[in-house]
Automatic annotation (TrEMBL):
Record's keyword annotation contains Transmembrane helix: yes
Protein's name according to its UniProt entry: Fucose 4-O-acetylase-like acetyltransferase
Pfam family, one: Acyl_transf_3
Residue stretches spanning the membrane: 48-69, 81-102, 114-130, 137-155, 161-178, 190-210, 236-255, 262-281, 287-306
Gene Ontology MF: a single term: acyltransferase activity, transferring groups other than amino-acyl groups
Species classification: Bacteria, Bacillati, Actinomycetota, Actinomycetes, Streptosporangiales
Keywords, ordered alphabetically: Membrane, Transferase, Transmembrane, Transmembrane helix
Organism per entry: Nonomuraea jabiensis
Amino acid sequence: MTVPATVDSRSVTARDPFFDNAKYLAILLVVCGHLIEDQRDHPIAHALYFYVYVFHMPLFIVLSGYLSRRFTFSAGKARKLISTLAVPYLIFEVAYSLPRLILYGKFELSLLDPYYLTWFLLSLFLWRLSTPVWQQLRWPLAIAVVLSLLTGMSALPGELAMNRTFALLPFYVLGLMLKPEHFAWLRRPYMRLAGFLTLGLGLAAALLVHEQVPTEWIRWRLPNSALHVDDLTGTAVRLGLLLAGAVLVAAFLAVTPARHTWFSGLGSATMYAYLLHGFVVKVAERFELGVPLSILLGVAAATLLCTPPVRRLFHWAVEPRMSWAFTPLRRP
């Protein structure tokens, strides 16, 4: 489907292939980034890791915010929140704790302190709950940025992924504020060219600065004090990373195909790839694959984990049917 420069009266929905294409391409970055993480002693791997981490999760969060604009505190929405985020979070918290029991004889489970990649489910749960609040504020993005910057000045507890939840909040709020016409603007031909140039410049910048910027900055999980900088410096760095992330997200969306592609259908199942690819990463870490092979494995794994057979096999964990756990909805 080709989207014209001007927006028609039809609203953009979650099944618009543009968004599914963006999510599929984004999950490739996530999986490949995790697979090269253990190879960061190689300069190229470290630069690629740094580059991808500046914007790959911000991209998912912006899309999540945009697609959460209609969230309300209705019974139906609450049930969906439980079945698509809360229950999968509990399942995968346990699932990712089991390998530690098998390999090291330790079973550590803290449901309020997310392990590995499950933090995103917990943060998204909290962000989505806050949606009606942000929609009532006059300057929601400015407030979210201030909260994000203030987070760096405090050693927040690890429970509920508090540091990441607040630090990355501006991207969710940005998504809530976006409208169909903003995406239509990004799809214009000259923006596509600008997007490619911006992504290229971003990669060049990452190659130049990746050795000077500690990796923890792009993980958003530590306060300024733990990164050994004062609050003024930390605030400047965090603001710079927020701006860089937003610019690269816009550039990435500008080059994302708007028409239906062979991978559009896979983009509707990226949560499967996100939650399951960690097991692939844990196995791959035991082998010295090298950067090119790791990237090839990442593309293959991310694609495979979004396919219908995998969805049927793991539907019970990623999208469990929870109607049995809820009381019947009351008709108005």
